[in-house]
Write a structure and sequence with these properties.
The complex is a heterodimer of chains A (222) and B (205).
Chain A lengths: L2 H14 L5 H19 L3 H22 L3 H8 L2 H6 L5 H28 L6 H28 L6 H12 L1 H16 L5 H30 L1
Helix pairs in contact in A: 1-6, 2-3, 2-6, 3-6, 3-7, 3-9, 6-7, 6-10, 7-8, 7-9, 7-10, 9-10
Chain B lengths: L1 E11 L2 E12 L3 E5 L6 H9 L6 E7 L11 E4 L11 H11 L5 H9 L15 H14 L4 E5 L7 H16 L3 E5 L9 E5 L9
Parallel strand pairs in B: 3-7, 3-8, 5-6, 6-7
Antiparallel strand pairs in B: 1-2, 1-4
Helix pairs in contact in B: 2-4, 3-4
The chains are: A mainly alpha (222), B alpha/beta (205).
Chain lengths: 222, 205
């Protein structure tokens, strides 16, 4: 087993066990989205129009939930010290933790999105577009979040700082994720343009996130 | 292999913890670091591990792998046991073996030596403080690294476990390893060098 698969498997195992964040994020997502029709009333046309935006907002908040524990838990129990003494590059270890986080929180959101989309009166075309934008966009949320999680690692109540730091940075992902999903439903803008930009944002965050987070961790340890 | 330090200084939170510290430890030798609370014993070990930057001075390892840092060739046994509560005893040890690129071959043996083989499937949350420490020490046995940095290794251990740890340390030294241990109690090993950390001039009380 290589160091990186060891990290990946460990983090996924912890996430799905008792007290892990995997189930919590998808349940939070379902609860938030379920509340919306109750608040707005049964106006089907309205729900259909704002559905993708609601789903994206809920996904954004849900993916932040488990993020603050991502490095803080390892810091508190001393694991982070040992990880820093490993021979695997910290950037790749951080990226692997991000992958594990996405697989246990982002991917369940992608799977749950079409089911919950029915509650917001989304039709088949919108569902497909929404799943595609989730699949392309949620990794960006995780990898941008890595930076905040690394900066807040030594703070006891890092979750709040994490949200304040990270939410502004996720605005582009939100804009183009919702724009792509809406384009497929309402037109007249083509789906391709915002979707391509969303993919580009994700690719950029996959590179920038781990490097920035690793630099922050090294700085914090001192 | 020889680990040497000269004129090391440590500054934490704007306060000088120690200065002018030097030592030289060769393969098969142990260094016991003593000093009162807050003298910088843990900081010195973390510096050697590469987890803390020295304010000044230098650390060098002769005869080690030049491609790797000192920390990458060292084991660090800190105050925290680096265990995940939701993982079982066996999973915790297997993870660190996998992460540090060691095989699974030694894991069973290390668990037996730590007296934890019957608890291998138990979540680590249910372990006592002493058992957690023993599991942490099993990591040193399962994964081969030449330098051991031990911070109060005997705390929470009972007499039998302390004897086993001493034997493990003796075997490590006999195998050409070297040990730096911060401790309040004497180490029952032969030929241990002593390093006493005192507050720098003008510091402390």
């Amino acid at each position: 087993m290589t160091p990186l698969t060891a990290i990946l498997l460990r983090d996924m195992r912890i996430a799905v066990r008792v007290g892990g964040g995997a189930l919590m994020a998808v349940l939070f997502f379902l609860v938030v989205v379920t509340l919306v029709p109750f608040a707005l009333g049964p106006d089907l046309a309205l729900l259909k129009r704002i559905g993708p935006a609601i789903l994206w907002l809920a996904a954004l908040l849900a993916s932040l939930l488990a993020l603050d524990r991502l490095f803080a838990a390892d810091h508190e129990d001393g694991s982070l010290d040992l990880i820093l003494m490993g021979r695997a590059p910290l950037e790749l270890v951080v990226a692997m933790k991000g992958v594990a986080h996405w697989l246990t929180t982002g991917l369940p959101l992608v799977i749950a999105a079409p089911l919950i989309g029915l509650m917001l009166n989304l039709d088949a075309a919108a569902e497909v577009a929404l799943v595609l934008t989730f699949l392309a966009g949620t990794p960006a949320l995780t990898f941008i979040g890595l930076v905040g999680a690394a900066i807040a690692v030594t703070l006891r109540r890092g979750g709040l700082l994490l949200a304040v730091l990270i939410l502004p940075l996720t605005v582009p992902v939100l804009i183009f994720g919702v724009a792509a999903a809406n384009a497929a439903v309402l037109g007249p803008v083509p789906f391709g343009a915002p979707f391509t930009i969303l993919c580009a944002l994700t690719l950029a965050s996959l590179v920038i996130g781990p490097f920035t987070a690793a630099a922050a961790l090294r700085q914090e340890m001192d | 292999m020889r680990l040497s330090a000269s004129d090391l200084a440590c500054r934490r939170g704007g306060r000088d913890v120690f200065a002018g510290v030097g030592f030289s430890v060769a393969s098969g030798e142990a260094l016991a670091i003593s000093g009162r609370n807050g003298a910088g014993k843990s900081s010195l070990l973390r510096m050697v591990a590469g987890l803390l930057r020295a304010a000044s001075g230098r650390l060098a390892l002769e005869g080690g792998d030049p491609e790797m840092t000192i920390g990458e060739q060292a084991h660090y046994l800190g105050h925290e046991d680096a265990l995940k509560h939701s993982l079982s005893v066996g999973e915790n040890l297997r993870f660190w073996a996998g992460f540090f690129g060691a095989g699974n071959a030694e894991i069973g043996e290390a668990l037996v030596a730590a007296g934890l083989d019957t608890l291998a499937d138990l979540p680590a949350a249910y372990l006592s403080a002493g058992q957690r420490r023993r599991l942490s020490i099993a990591r040193l046995r399962a994964i081969k690294r030449p330098i051991w940095l031990l911070d109060e290794p005997t705390s929470t251990l009972d007499a039998a476990a302390q004897r086993r740890l001493t034997e493990l340390m003796r075997a490590h030294l006999a195998g050409g390893g070297l040990i730096l241990a911060a401790t309040h109690s004497a180490i029952a090993l032969e030929g241990v060098q002593e390093l006493r950390l005192d507050p720098p001039r003008g510091g402390g009380e």
